[in-house]
């Protein structure tokens, strides 16, 4: 059983797991240097694909999740044979059903279900028992945190309540006499200042939460757009392949018809022996 973030294609599977791990460690350690070397080589006409940064690498590939099974399954079977495994488990591409999906007669498990609450809030996991049985585990999502505006409003309400309590306490203590009135009034002002500071902190936290949510939503939108574009490209490629196959079939039929006509003409031109 192979676990890979995006999927190990046959070209990378041919290297073997040990070589893949070594290459990954080298590129993580010397990523900048390797990246600049790659740019220089490609500028001179070389075509390279980084393990980490390359679109076909095990961290970015979508070969098994966006291709048709006619394309993905033979490649998967070849990779599994090279890796001496029977199942590959991948993530990276969110499934449209937001559930764990199986492909290629159960040899591929796609387990990216949109766990983030900004994508689908659909946490799922794969459980593998000691006996080798595989189960899908669904985790009930927790309630979403209060919206930033609601949190800020609640903080402001708490601050107002603290202001009222502090003012009431200061007024009551002032009526109680000069011995304790001055000290209690000071404490009331301090409590009001503390409540105001807490409200300001809550407002800042709410603003940061809103900014983080907006950034996560933008990232999710960009991921969805990328997936949609890749699917359109894949569909266009499939249509082109189908058109080419149809043209080839038509050419073969025309050639067969021409051969039959030539054979018929030869039979007609033949004369019987006297």
UniProtKB/TrEMBL annotation:
<protein>
    <submittedName>
        <fullName>Serine/threonine protein phosphatase, putative</fullName>
    </submittedName>
</protein>
<feature type="region of interest" description="Disordered">
    <location>
        <begin position="203"/>
        <end position="274"/>
    </location>
</feature>
<feature type="compositionally biased region" description="Low complexity">
    <location>
        <begin position="233"/>
        <end position="266"/>
    </location>
</feature>
<feature type="compositionally biased region" description="Acidic residues">
    <location>
        <begin position="160"/>
        <end position="170"/>
    </location>
</feature>
<feature type="compositionally biased region" description="Low complexity">
    <location>
        <begin position="203"/>
        <end position="219"/>
    </location>
</feature>
<feature type="region of interest" description="Disordered">
    <location>
        <begin position="155"/>
        <end position="185"/>
    </location>
</feature>
<dbReference type="InterPro" id="IPR029052">
    <property type="entry name" value="Metallo-depent_PP-like"/>
</dbReference>
């Amino acid at each position: 059983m192979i676990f890979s973030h995006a999927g190990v294609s046959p070209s990378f599977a041919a290297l073997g797991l040990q070589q893949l791990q070594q290459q990954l460690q080298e590129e993580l350690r010397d990523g900048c240097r390797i990246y600049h070397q790659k740019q220089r080589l490609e500028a001179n006409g070389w075509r390279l694909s980084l393990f980490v940064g390359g679109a076909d690498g095990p961290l970015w590939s979508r070969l098994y999740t966006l291709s048709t099974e006619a394309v993905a399954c033979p490649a998967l079977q070849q990779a599994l044979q090279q890796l001496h495994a029977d199942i590959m488990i991948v993530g990276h591409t969110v499934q449209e059903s937001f559930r764990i999906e199986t492909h290629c007669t159960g040899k591929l498990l796609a387990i990216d279900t949109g766990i983030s609450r900004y994508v689908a809030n659909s946490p799922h996991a794969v459980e593998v028992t000691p006996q080798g049985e595989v189960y899908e585990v669904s985790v009930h999502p927790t309630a979403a945190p209060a919206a930033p505006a609601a949190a800020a409003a609640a903080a402001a309400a708490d601050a107002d309540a603290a202001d009222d309590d502090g003012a009431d306490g200061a007024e009551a203590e002032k009526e109680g006499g000069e011995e304790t009135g001055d000290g209690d009034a000071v404490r009331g002002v301090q409590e009001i200042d503390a409540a105001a500071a807490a409200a300001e902190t809550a407002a800042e936290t709410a603003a940061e939460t809103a900014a983080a949510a907006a950034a996560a939503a933008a990232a999710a939108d960009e991921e969805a757009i990328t997936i949609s574009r890749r699917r359109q490209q894949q569909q266009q490629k499939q249509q082109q392949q189908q058109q080419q196959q149809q043209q080839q079939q038509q050419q073969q039929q025309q050639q067969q018809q021409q051969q039959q006509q030539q054979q018929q003409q030869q039979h007609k031109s033949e004369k019987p022996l006297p």
